Amino acid sequence: MAKKVLIVYAHQSSASFNSAAKDAAKEVLAAQGCTVEVSDLYAMKFKATATAEDITGDVKNAAHFRYAEETKLAWEEGKLCADITEEQRKLTEADLIIFQFPMYWFTVPAIMKGWMDRVLTLGYAYSEERRYSQGILKDKKAMLSFTTGSHESMFSADGVNGDMNVTLWPLQNGILHYCGFQVLAPQIFWAPSRLPSEARGTLLEGWRTRLQGVLAEKPLSFTPLDCFDGEKGFQLKPEFQEKNASKEYGLTVGIHLGKALPPNSQMKAGV
């Protein structure tokens, strides 16, 4: 069966490297028979702020508005505003979601963060019972594809920006994996604005090559939810702590158990 792909794209210029990366993904995946939709957030003038205006009609508690609870009710009652409903439709239909963006301040641009805040609503994308490895969106794959302003050496364990694996943890674990996505290794284009045209072309060719098999890629590894004791504050169960006691590295970037971080665990699958 043909796969469906959603590209959530955030760049202001059609002449940008990010635009070229988005176009390459659309072209290569479509050539494989995929149906590809693009949410061009700047062109859509997508609203980045999570407010009561995201709900049609009255809210339950206007005196103390709580976005997560109110949008959950609105989702259940079909009262979310049209732009959120449309993006949730695209996401529901997609097998793979690619987030294409320039890294701003070590994270996604505000307009893309707004997409995540507003589209991944409580009840639709996650719940207290269904998150992480048991998440609602666990049958879907997602990946980050982005450009940096800094060279790769600056995002290393001894570089001035710090380890890119640490930078990626809040996005890949705290948003994507939290909702259940199978998170594919990120596609990082290191400082393309500092490269000559020929080198930028080489980066895009590497991306095109990866896209040929991206749908079959194995995801990054995360510690399964059932390794944690829900009755004891979701702490790692003793048997899993003991199993890892003699190992050199912690389990993940975040769940490191006071050990050295596992190298490249947020950048490569199978490590």
Automatic annotation (TrEMBL):
Out of the domains of life, which is the source? Eukaryota
All copies of domain Flavodoxin-like fold, residue ranges: 3-191
Q: Which InterPro entries match?
A: Flavodoxin_fold, Flavoprotein-like_sf, NAD(P)H_dehydrogenase_qn
What Pfam families does this protein's entry cite? Flavodoxin_2
This protein's GO cellular component annotations are: cytosol
Which UniProt keywords are present, listed alphabetically? Cytoplasm, FAD, Flavoprotein, Metal-binding, Oxidoreductase, Phosphoprotein, Zinc
Q: What cofactor does its activity depend on?
A: Zn(2+); FAD
Extract one GO molecular function annotation from the record: dihydronicotinamide riboside quinone reductase activity
Protein EC: 1.10.5.1
Assembly, in brief, is:
Homodimer.
- Protein name as catalogued: Ribosyldihydronicotinamide dehydrogenase [quinone]
Species annotation: Gasterosteus aculeatus aculeatus (three-spined stickleback)
